[in-house]
Design goal:
6-stranded mixed sheet, about 25% helix, about 325 residues, alpha+beta
Protein backbone atom coordinates (compact mmCIF):
# COMPACT_ATOMS: atom_id res chain seq x y z
CA UNK A 1 0.00 0.00 0.00
CA UNK A 2 2.87 2.34 0.84
CA UNK A 3 4.64 1.64 -2.47
CA UNK A 4 1.37 2.21 -4.36
CA UNK A 5 0.94 5.58 -2.70
CA UNK A 6 4.54 6.46 -3.57
CA UNK A 7 4.03 5.51 -7.23
CA UNK A 8 0.91 7.74 -7.35
CA UNK A 9 2.90 10.69 -6.00
CA UNK A 10 5.68 10.10 -8.55
CA UNK A 11 3.12 9.93 -11.39
CA UNK A 12 1.49 13.22 -10.35
CA UNK A 13 4.88 14.88 -10.00
CA UNK A 14 5.78 13.86 -13.56
CA UNK A 15 2.47 15.35 -14.75
CA UNK A 16 3.43 18.67 -13.14
CA UNK A 17 0.44 18.66 -10.79
CA UNK A 18 1.07 18.92 -7.01
CA UNK A 19 -0.26 15.76 -5.40
CA UNK A 20 -1.93 17.81 -2.62
CA UNK A 21 -4.36 19.29 -5.20
CA UNK A 22 -5.45 15.82 -6.24
CA UNK A 23 -5.98 14.77 -2.63
CA UNK A 24 -8.28 17.76 -2.08
CA UNK A 25 -10.29 17.00 -5.23
CA UNK A 26 -10.58 13.32 -4.37
CA UNK A 27 -12.07 14.27 -0.99
CA UNK A 28 -15.32 14.95 -2.87
CA UNK A 29 -16.50 17.96 -0.84
CA UNK A 30 -14.77 20.79 -2.67
CA UNK A 31 -16.70 23.04 -5.03
CA UNK A 32 -14.88 23.18 -8.38
CA UNK A 33 -16.44 26.52 -9.33
CA UNK A 34 -17.18 28.43 -6.11
CA UNK A 35 -19.32 31.55 -6.32
CA UNK A 36 -22.01 33.46 -4.39
CA UNK A 37 -24.25 31.25 -2.27
CA UNK A 38 -27.64 31.27 -3.94
CA UNK A 39 -29.73 29.99 -1.03
CA UNK A 40 -27.84 30.60 2.22
CA UNK A 41 -29.27 29.26 5.45
CA UNK A 42 -30.22 32.25 7.60
CA UNK A 43 -29.03 30.41 10.71
CA UNK A 44 -25.65 28.95 9.72
CA UNK A 45 -25.04 30.92 6.46
CA UNK A 46 -24.05 27.72 4.65
CA UNK A 47 -25.69 26.94 1.30
CA UNK A 48 -28.95 25.01 1.31
CA UNK A 49 -28.53 22.14 -1.16
CA UNK A 50 -31.14 20.06 -2.98
CA UNK A 51 -30.25 16.87 -1.14
CA UNK A 52 -30.65 18.49 2.29
CA UNK A 53 -33.77 18.89 4.40
CA UNK A 54 -34.66 22.59 4.50
CA UNK A 55 -37.66 24.85 5.08
CA UNK A 56 -38.77 28.08 3.45
CA UNK A 57 -40.28 30.74 5.75
CA UNK A 58 -43.71 31.84 4.47
CA UNK A 59 -43.09 35.42 5.62
CA UNK A 60 -39.47 36.38 4.85
CA UNK A 61 -39.14 33.68 2.13
CA UNK A 62 -35.67 32.61 3.29
CA UNK A 63 -34.31 29.08 3.53
CA UNK A 64 -33.13 27.34 6.68
CA UNK A 65 -31.69 23.90 7.28
CA UNK A 66 -34.12 21.74 9.21
CA UNK A 67 -31.40 20.82 11.69
CA UNK A 68 -30.62 24.51 12.30
CA UNK A 69 -34.28 25.05 13.20
CA UNK A 70 -34.45 22.04 15.49
CA UNK A 71 -36.86 20.22 13.15
CA UNK A 72 -36.45 16.44 13.32
CA UNK A 73 -37.24 14.04 10.48
CA UNK A 74 -40.76 13.23 11.73
CA UNK A 75 -41.77 16.89 12.04
CA UNK A 76 -40.16 17.66 8.67
CA UNK A 77 -42.25 14.98 6.94
CA UNK A 78 -45.40 16.21 8.69
CA UNK A 79 -44.81 19.78 7.49
CA UNK A 80 -44.25 18.47 3.98
CA UNK A 81 -47.68 16.84 3.97
CA UNK A 82 -49.49 19.85 5.56
CA UNK A 83 -49.97 21.92 2.41
CA UNK A 84 -52.22 24.52 4.06
CA UNK A 85 -50.03 25.03 7.12
CA UNK A 86 -47.72 28.03 7.10
CA UNK A 87 -44.24 27.78 8.59
CA UNK A 88 -42.49 30.81 10.10
CA UNK A 89 -38.87 31.07 11.18
CA UNK A 90 -38.10 32.16 14.74
CA UNK A 91 -37.20 35.69 13.64
CA UNK A 92 -40.59 36.23 12.01
CA UNK A 93 -42.42 34.59 14.90
CA UNK A 94 -40.93 36.94 17.47
CA UNK A 95 -40.62 40.12 15.42
CA UNK A 96 -42.94 43.08 15.34
CA UNK A 97 -44.50 41.85 12.12
CA UNK A 98 -47.02 39.59 13.89
CA UNK A 99 -50.50 41.03 13.65
CA UNK A 100 -50.93 41.13 17.43
CA UNK A 101 -47.95 43.47 17.72
CA UNK A 102 -49.02 45.28 14.57
CA UNK A 103 -52.38 46.04 16.17
CA UNK A 104 -50.60 47.49 19.20
CA UNK A 105 -48.35 49.54 16.95
CA UNK A 106 -51.29 50.84 14.95
CA UNK A 107 -53.26 51.86 18.02
CA UNK A 108 -50.25 53.65 19.49
CA UNK A 109 -48.96 55.25 16.31
CA UNK A 110 -51.95 57.29 15.24
CA UNK A 111 -53.48 60.72 15.64
CA UNK A 112 -56.91 62.17 14.97
CA UNK A 113 -57.00 65.38 12.95
CA UNK A 114 -59.81 67.69 14.07
CA UNK A 115 -62.71 67.78 11.60
CA UNK A 116 -60.55 67.76 8.49
CA UNK A 117 -63.08 65.91 6.31
CA UNK A 118 -65.77 67.74 4.35
CA UNK A 119 -68.41 66.05 6.53
CA UNK A 120 -66.91 67.68 9.59
CA UNK A 121 -65.76 64.34 10.98
CA UNK A 122 -62.23 63.85 12.22
CA UNK A 123 -59.60 62.10 10.12
CA UNK A 124 -57.63 59.22 11.62
CA UNK A 125 -53.98 59.10 10.47
CA UNK A 126 -52.09 55.90 11.31
CA UNK A 127 -48.91 54.05 10.43
CA UNK A 128 -48.01 50.38 10.58
CA UNK A 129 -44.81 48.48 9.78
CA UNK A 130 -46.40 45.40 8.23
CA UNK A 131 -43.30 43.47 7.07
CA UNK A 132 -44.87 41.67 4.11
CA UNK A 133 -48.41 42.74 3.27
CA UNK A 134 -49.63 39.83 1.15
CA UNK A 135 -49.72 37.09 3.83
CA UNK A 136 -51.31 39.54 6.31
CA UNK A 137 -53.76 41.25 3.98
CA UNK A 138 -56.90 39.48 5.24
CA UNK A 139 -56.00 40.29 8.85
CA UNK A 140 -55.31 43.89 7.89
CA UNK A 141 -58.77 44.20 6.34
CA UNK A 142 -60.36 42.91 9.55
CA UNK A 143 -58.26 45.36 11.54
CA UNK A 144 -59.45 48.28 9.41
CA UNK A 145 -63.06 47.14 9.84
CA UNK A 146 -62.59 46.96 13.62
CA UNK A 147 -61.43 50.58 13.72
CA UNK A 148 -64.98 51.62 12.88
CA UNK A 149 -66.46 54.16 10.52
CA UNK A 150 -63.93 56.95 11.06
CA UNK A 151 -62.37 58.27 7.80
CA UNK A 152 -58.78 57.10 7.76
CA UNK A 153 -55.38 57.44 6.14
CA UNK A 154 -53.26 54.36 6.84
CA UNK A 155 -49.59 54.24 5.92
CA UNK A 156 -47.75 50.94 5.62
CA UNK A 157 -44.00 50.42 5.51
CA UNK A 158 -42.03 47.32 4.51
CA UNK A 159 -44.84 46.06 2.28
CA UNK A 160 -42.38 43.79 0.41
CA UNK A 161 -44.42 44.18 -2.79
CA UNK A 162 -43.18 43.94 -6.36
CA UNK A 163 -44.58 43.88 -9.89
CA UNK A 164 -46.00 40.39 -9.39
CA UNK A 165 -48.64 41.78 -7.00
CA UNK A 166 -51.34 43.90 -8.65
CA UNK A 167 -52.95 46.78 -6.80
CA UNK A 168 -56.36 45.13 -7.26
CA UNK A 169 -55.16 42.23 -5.10
CA UNK A 170 -54.51 44.50 -2.10
CA UNK A 171 -57.27 47.09 -2.51
CA UNK A 172 -59.49 47.96 0.46
CA UNK A 173 -63.12 48.94 -0.10
CA UNK A 174 -63.75 52.65 0.45
CA UNK A 175 -60.08 53.61 0.10
CA UNK A 176 -57.72 54.76 -2.63
CA UNK A 177 -54.37 53.06 -2.80
CA UNK A 178 -51.01 54.75 -3.38
CA UNK A 179 -47.94 52.53 -3.45
CA UNK A 180 -44.22 52.70 -4.03
CA UNK A 181 -42.38 49.38 -4.29
CA UNK A 182 -38.69 48.80 -3.84
CA UNK A 183 -37.26 47.72 -7.20
CA UNK A 184 -33.77 46.73 -6.07
CA UNK A 185 -33.13 44.15 -3.40
CA UNK A 186 -35.52 42.54 -0.94
CA UNK A 187 -37.86 44.18 1.53
CA UNK A 188 -38.86 47.82 1.76
CA UNK A 189 -41.87 49.28 0.01
CA UNK A 190 -44.49 51.84 1.06
CA UNK A 191 -48.24 52.14 0.71
CA UNK A 192 -50.98 54.58 1.69
CA UNK A 193 -54.67 53.73 2.02
CA UNK A 194 -56.68 56.97 1.83
CA UNK A 195 -60.41 57.18 2.53
CA UNK A 196 -62.64 58.02 -0.44
CA UNK A 197 -64.41 60.60 1.70
CA UNK A 198 -61.70 63.12 0.96
CA UNK A 199 -60.08 64.05 -2.33
CA UNK A 200 -56.47 63.02 -2.67
CA UNK A 201 -53.70 63.08 -5.26
CA UNK A 202 -50.17 61.74 -5.23
CA UNK A 203 -47.43 64.38 -5.03
CA UNK A 204 -44.60 62.80 -7.01
CA UNK A 205 -42.87 66.18 -7.14
CA UNK A 206 -42.15 65.96 -3.40
CA UNK A 207 -40.67 62.45 -3.58
CA UNK A 208 -37.02 61.52 -4.06
CA UNK A 209 -35.25 58.73 -5.90
CA UNK A 210 -32.67 58.32 -3.11
CA UNK A 211 -35.27 57.83 -0.35
CA UNK A 212 -38.16 55.46 0.22
CA UNK A 213 -40.95 58.00 0.59
CA UNK A 214 -44.41 58.62 -0.80
CA UNK A 215 -46.44 61.86 -0.57
CA UNK A 216 -50.09 62.69 -1.13
CA UNK A 217 -52.14 65.88 -0.83
CA UNK A 218 -55.51 65.43 0.83
CA UNK A 219 -58.20 68.04 0.27
CA UNK A 220 -61.50 68.76 1.99
CA UNK A 221 -63.18 71.93 0.77
CA UNK A 222 -60.61 74.72 0.91
CA UNK A 223 -58.35 72.85 3.32
CA UNK A 224 -55.28 70.93 2.19
CA UNK A 225 -53.08 68.56 4.11
CA UNK A 226 -49.80 67.01 2.94
CA UNK A 227 -49.29 63.46 4.20
CA UNK A 228 -46.04 61.60 3.71
CA UNK A 229 -44.98 58.05 4.49
CA UNK A 230 -41.27 57.28 4.81
CA UNK A 231 -39.07 54.27 5.56
CA UNK A 232 -35.49 54.58 6.78
CA UNK A 233 -33.72 51.18 6.66
CA UNK A 234 -31.61 50.24 9.70
CA UNK A 235 -28.50 50.26 7.47
CA UNK A 236 -29.26 53.62 5.85
CA UNK A 237 -26.13 55.63 4.99
CA UNK A 238 -25.29 58.79 6.91
CA UNK A 239 -26.36 60.82 3.86
CA UNK A 240 -29.99 59.82 4.52
CA UNK A 241 -30.50 62.64 7.03
CA UNK A 242 -29.22 65.16 4.48
CA UNK A 243 -31.75 63.83 1.97
CA UNK A 244 -34.44 64.13 4.64
CA UNK A 245 -33.49 67.74 5.28
CA UNK A 246 -33.58 68.63 1.57
CA UNK A 247 -36.98 66.97 1.20
CA UNK A 248 -38.52 68.81 4.17
CA UNK A 249 -37.11 72.09 2.88
CA UNK A 250 -39.07 71.51 -0.32
CA UNK A 251 -42.21 70.43 1.55
CA UNK A 252 -42.42 73.47 3.84
CA UNK A 253 -42.30 75.75 0.81
CA UNK A 254 -45.85 74.53 0.08
CA UNK A 255 -47.03 76.40 3.21
CA UNK A 256 -49.56 73.68 3.99
CA UNK A 257 -50.23 71.70 7.12
CA UNK A 258 -48.06 68.60 6.90
CA UNK A 259 -47.88 65.26 8.62
CA UNK A 260 -45.08 62.74 8.05
CA UNK A 261 -45.44 59.18 9.31
CA UNK A 262 -43.17 56.18 8.95
CA UNK A 263 -40.59 53.81 10.31
CA UNK A 264 -37.46 55.86 10.96
CA UNK A 265 -35.55 53.12 12.81
CA UNK A 266 -34.48 55.71 15.38
CA UNK A 267 -35.12 54.80 19.00
CA UNK A 268 -36.34 58.06 20.50
CA UNK A 269 -35.96 56.66 24.04
CA UNK A 270 -32.27 55.94 23.51
CA UNK A 271 -30.67 59.03 21.95
CA UNK A 272 -27.72 58.42 19.64
CA UNK A 273 -26.20 60.13 16.62
CA UNK A 274 -29.15 59.14 14.41
CA UNK A 275 -31.87 60.38 16.75
CA UNK A 276 -29.86 63.53 17.43
CA UNK A 277 -29.57 64.37 13.74
CA UNK A 278 -33.25 63.56 13.19
CA UNK A 279 -34.23 65.92 16.00
CA UNK A 280 -32.07 68.66 14.49
CA UNK A 281 -33.64 68.22 11.05
CA UNK A 282 -37.24 68.17 12.27
CA UNK A 283 -36.71 71.11 14.61
CA UNK A 284 -35.14 73.15 11.80
CA UNK A 285 -38.37 72.90 9.81
CA UNK A 286 -40.75 73.25 12.78
CA UNK A 287 -41.95 69.65 12.85
CA UNK A 288 -43.06 68.17 16.17
CA UNK A 289 -42.67 64.47 16.97
CA UNK A 290 -45.77 63.42 18.94
CA UNK A 291 -45.36 59.65 19.42
CA UNK A 292 -44.01 58.77 22.86
CA UNK A 293 -45.26 55.22 23.40
CA UNK A 294 -43.39 52.16 22.07
CA UNK A 295 -44.35 51.16 18.52
CA UNK A 296 -41.87 48.34 17.92
CA UNK A 297 -42.67 45.51 20.32
CA UNK A 298 -40.56 42.33 20.50
CA UNK A 299 -39.94 39.75 23.19
CA UNK A 300 -36.88 41.64 24.40
CA UNK A 301 -37.72 45.34 24.08
CA UNK A 302 -40.27 48.01 23.27
CA UNK A 303 -39.10 51.06 21.33
CA UNK A 304 -40.71 54.05 19.59
CA UNK A 305 -39.16 53.91 16.10
CA UNK A 306 -42.38 54.50 14.13
CA UNK A 307 -42.88 58.22 14.35
CA UNK A 308 -45.48 60.85 13.52
CA UNK A 309 -44.19 64.32 12.67
CA UNK A 310 -46.52 67.30 12.21
CA UNK A 311 -46.18 71.03 11.54
CA UNK A 312 -49.33 72.18 13.33
CA UNK A 313 -50.11 70.52 16.64
CA UNK A 314 -53.37 72.47 16.96
CA UNK A 315 -54.88 70.19 14.34
CA UNK A 316 -54.48 67.17 16.62
CA UNK A 317 -57.50 66.06 18.56
CA UNK A 318 -56.13 62.88 20.17
CA UNK A 319 -52.97 60.76 19.99
Amino acid sequence: EKSSHLRTRLFLRRCGIPWQYWMILLAGDVELNPGPVRYPCTTCSKPVKRNQRALLCDVCERWMHATSCGIDETEYERLGLAEEEKWLCEACKSSECTMVSCTKSLLWNQSTMQHFTSSGRSLLVSHLNIRSLVPKFDELQHLIEDLGDCPMVLGLSETWLDDTVGSSEISVEGHRLYRRDRHEGRGGGLLLYVTNRIKSIQRNDLERDDMEVIWIEARAGKESLLIGNVYRPPNAPSAWMKCMSEMLEMVVQESKATILIGDFNCNMLNPDSHTGRLNLVTTEFDFSQIITNPTSVTQNMETPIDLLLITNQDMIETV
